[in-house]
Amino acid sequence: MEPSEDDRQWSLESLEKAYQQGYMAGLTGQPRDRQPYTAEVPAAAWEAGWDDGHEQYRLAQKSA
């Protein structure tokens, strides 16, 4: 399958931004389905950030 044009237009900086946005969303308890990206690569970066942030959120909830 040919990558879409959106998937070819990312940089390390844009992926870091997507990761950080996902991390903050997970950290603040926002649902994973609020992922804002349509392109596969930044969406995966956001989801990885969300996973890491949500883990921290869960740990904070347990210790509260």
TrEMBL record:
Keyword terms of this UniProt record: Cytoplasm, Translation regulation
Q: Name one Pfam family in it.
A: RMF
Alphabetized Gene3D superfamilies for the sequence: ribosome modulation factor like domain
Q: Which GO terms describe its biological process?
A: regulation of translation
Record flagged with keyword Glycosyltransferase:
no
* InterPro entries assigned to the protein according to its UniProt record, in alphabetical order: Ribosome_modulation_factor (IPR007040), RMF_sf (IPR023200)
Listed name of the protein: Ribosome modulation factor
Q: Which organism is it from?
A: Zestomonas carbonaria
